[in-house]
Amino acid sequence: MPLVSDFYAAYDSIPCPQQKCLVHLIRDLNDDLLKCPYDEDLKRIAQAFTALLKPMVETIDRYGLKKRFLGKHLARVNRFYRNLFAMTLNSPIAVKLKDRLEKNRGKLFTFLSFDGVPWNNNNAEHAVKPFAELRHIIAGVTTEKGIREYLILLSLCETCKYMGVDFLDFLRSGEQDIHAFAFARNRARRDPDCEYGKPFRPLKPLFQNGQPGQAGISFFVNLFDDFQKFFGNVCSHEGKSCFST
């Protein structure tokens, strides 16, 4: 399966098929056009690239990320590069863009030859947003163990989200394989007698008559203990835990 990434050079050393994010490329191209609105050489390349990419996006919107339908655009990619190679350019910024397109030729349109490979890494960037938000919450003070445990839960949560599985249901099921759990839940929708089709046993009420019951007291005690263990490592000031008295 190809690696979908931005143009960070470190990814180039990974020995696998790669798909560079075309949204990043388009963004850089737009920035160049805003800086040099009268550069005719740059406009020629931008117009040719737009004419190449637009039908691909329309195909994806209609049929999805399926090589059966996307493969027909490979001939247009080859024609684009033949025309690009034949261009005589005088603008330094246009020459730089041409070199970039030629250098990454084998990584810009990999998605045309695979099923389910996106042409951008928007999903990945969206998935790491919760981690970016956590950095602001903890203000950069944490431990390796705390970050590792958080990233494991974040990875599970985001995987469940993209597979259409409820994260809490997966944790409560005791299953360790998200794909197996998702498959079983889909099967349960077709087979009411399947074990996974049965609802989870209801939890004991946390409150009774407006007051915390025994289950509620145990729940909040355990929750506070977990909270203290985690943030006792994360939130510190001058080497002293924020829970210290």
The gross shape turns out to be globular
The average pLDDT is 79
Annotation field: number of helices: 12
Q: Strand content of the residues, in percent?
A: 5-15%
Order of the strands making up the biggest sheet = 1-2
Q: Tell me the span between the first and last alpha carbons.
A: 52 Å
Written as H for each helix and E for each strand, in order along the chain, the element string is EEHHHHHHHHHHHEEHEE
**Amount of helix:** 55-70%
Q: Largest sheet, if any?
A: 2 strands, parallel
Would you write up a description of this structure?
This protein has 245 residues and is mainly alpha-helical. The chain has 2 domains: 3-119, no CATH class; 125-241, no CATH class. It contains 12 helices and 6 strands. A hairpin with a 2-residue loop joins strand 5 and strand 6 (240-241). Helix 2 runs antiparallel to helix 4 (74-86).
